[in-house]
Design brief:
- Strands 6-5-15-16-17-14-18 form a seven-stranded mixed beta sheet, covered by helices on one side.
- The protein is built from twelve helices and 29 strands.
- Helices cover 24% and strands 28% of the residues.
- This is FAD-dependent monooxygenase.
């Protein structure tokens, strides 16, 4: 007799990470039980930006067009001193991953509005059961599944929910992580910061820059949020405490020092926090996985904390959903941490380095190094904050690095199918695993054994044709923007294997066999 499960996956925490995980799982056919302490979206904005990688994940979930209505394109980043000297700038070229009709690299967000929209999207999934106002007080697992015990905060009633797996997306203080006994290593900064969220009354010059005011004593983050909001993040001096700012009247001198007046904004709310640099010892214990702040905490300088959590959850979500559907083996779960920990470490390191610039701790040589283009690159150089993501390990076959296509994120230009329908690439590609050929049928490059492995994964085979030629099969796509075929040629490959998350897993240059066993 098969075991009864109340849902396939329990998601503990329904902030951005939990939402990304729950939406991914539900969209791909898994039943989800989500647990959230708060009835309403947390009112304070925390994250301030998302980029094209995160937006492409939302495209995969079919909600990017709705999210685009509550976010706004970001102009560029700049680091300036109080006397107006620009120390560094990062321009945002058009995205190579753009969704729908837009191509911004970065978007400014107002996190409560983003979360509210994602919650509305979740309400449309019949397989997603969200339980608000409950606290998870127990997580027990055995060989067959996980039992999550939750207490209703209003009535005190406790209920047990049986699932196959669980994702802890319950924040930096993660009760689930503590229940599992997983240590968190790292440090918390001594400096207390005040975060001031304001409603905009009028436009001022260059408001659309994300500006870092660099100063040893008062480095400040100055950023336009979406929906008519603006934020300043300001460090307090050693002798200052929260008690020194009992009301907005005491906060105003901090803003006036930056040239901001009551004619420009009104203070909406403010809060205090300290920066963390912490990483969980492991992201997994058995059938329970840590994601987002439960697994890693980073300073805000790279704008990557919330996004890293959402990417964690999407990575877990499509894999677990594939296992639940019987299409993937449980060995896929072993790829989660090797793929996600290096990314979290990379963005944490970047955030720390950028923080040294804003606090005027970075030497001229360090700043120059950040802007120095390495010689003899195959991949065109972009500042790390702009560059498309890569995978350093996990479900890959072959070496990664500058000259390799393996581990890279597939670009998303405009394309056209064989009957003339034009759209962004992802909208025309089949779902799941795909082998793409450089003006050829990629299945012709496979041995019978290799094709059998890809067929077992339900892979599709697609030839990408030049816009100057003809399609030859109903599955062919046309490279309308002359972007994909030159990308193949740059890395000297005739065919690539693309995962459901659009990372390249293998190429004919290193062998098109599937990277690991599937069942």
């Amino acid at each position: 007799m098969s075991e009864h499960y109340d849902a396939d996956v329990a998601v503990v925490g329904y902030g951005p990470t939990g939402l990304a995980g729950a939406l991914t799982l539900a969209a791909k056919g898994a039943r989800v039980a989500a647990f959230e302490r708060d009835q309403d979206v947390y009112a304070r904005a925390r994250a301030v930006t998302i980029n094209d990688w995160t937006m492409r994940i939302l495209q995969d979930l079919g909600v990017d067009d709705r999210v685009e209505r509550v976010v706004e394109p970001q102009r560029a980043l700049r680091w300036v001193t109080y006397d107006g000297r620009e120390v560094m700038r990062v321009e945002h070229p058009p995205s190579t991953l753009g969704t729908r009709g837009s191509k911004p690299r970065f978007y400014n967000i107002y996190q409560p509005a983003l979360e509210a929209e994602l919650r509305r999207c979740g309400e449309e999934h019949s397989g997603l059961d969200v339980r608000y106002g409950v606290e998870v007080v127990g997580v027990e697992q055995d060989a067959g599944g996980v039992t999550v015990t939750a207490r209703d905060l209003a009535t005190g009633e406790e209920t047990a929910t049986r699932t196959r797996y669980a994702i802890a997306a319950d924040g930096g203080s993660s009760p689930v992580r503590k229940m599992l006994g997983i240590p968190m290593h790292g440090d918390t900064g001594d400096t207390l910061w005040i975060v001031v969220d304001c409603r905009v009354k009028r436009w001022w010059p260059d408001r659309d820059f994300l500006t870092f005011w660099t100063d040893r004593e008062r480095p400040v983050v100055d950023i336009a949020l979406s929906a008519g909001n603006h934020r300043w993040e300001i460090p307090l001096k050693a002798a200052e405490t929260e008690a020194d700012f009992p009301s907005g009247a005491e906060v105003w001198p901090l803003l006036r020092a930056l040239g901001v007046t009551e004619d420009d904004v009104e203070i909406h709310q403010y809060a205090f926090y300290r920066h963390h640099v912490r990483m969980a010892e492991t992201y997994r214990q058995g059938r329970v996985f840590l994601a987002g702040d439960a697994a890693h905490l980073m300073p805000p300088w790279a704008g990557a904390g919330m996004q890293t959590g959402m990417r964690d959850a999407h990575n877990l979500g499509w894999k677990i959903a594939g296992i639940v559907r019987g299409e993937l083996g449980e060995d896929w779960l072993d790829t989660y941490e090797p793929e996600r920990r290096p990314s979290a470490e990379f963005y944490t390191g970047m955030a720390v380095a950028l923080g040294r610039v804003i606090k005027q701790e970075a030497s001229p040589a360090e700043i120059e190094a950040m802007n120095t283009v390495p010689p003899n690159l195959v991949t065109p150089w972009e500042p790390p904050l702009n560059a498309p993501p890569t995978l350093a390990g996990g479900w890959l076959r072959g070496e990664t690095g500058d000259a390799s296509v393996v581990g890279r994120y597939l670009p998303q230009p405009l394309a056209c199918d064989a009957v003339g329908r034009i759209d962004r690439l992802d909208a025309l590609l089949p779902k799941g695993f795909i082998l793409l050929g450089n003006d050829l049928d990629p299945s012709n490059l496979l041995t019978p054994e290799e094709q059998a492995d890809w067929d077992a994964l339900g892979a599709s085979y697609v030839a990408v044709r030049p816009r100057t030629g003809y399609t030859r099969a109903a599955s062919d796509l046309v490279d309308l923007e002359d972007a994909l075929l030159p990308w193949f040629d740059r890395y000297g490959v005739q065919a690539i294997a693309v995962r459901p998350d659009k990372f390249v897993a293998a190429a004919d240059k290193t062998g098109l066999a599937a990277p690991v066993s599937q069942r």
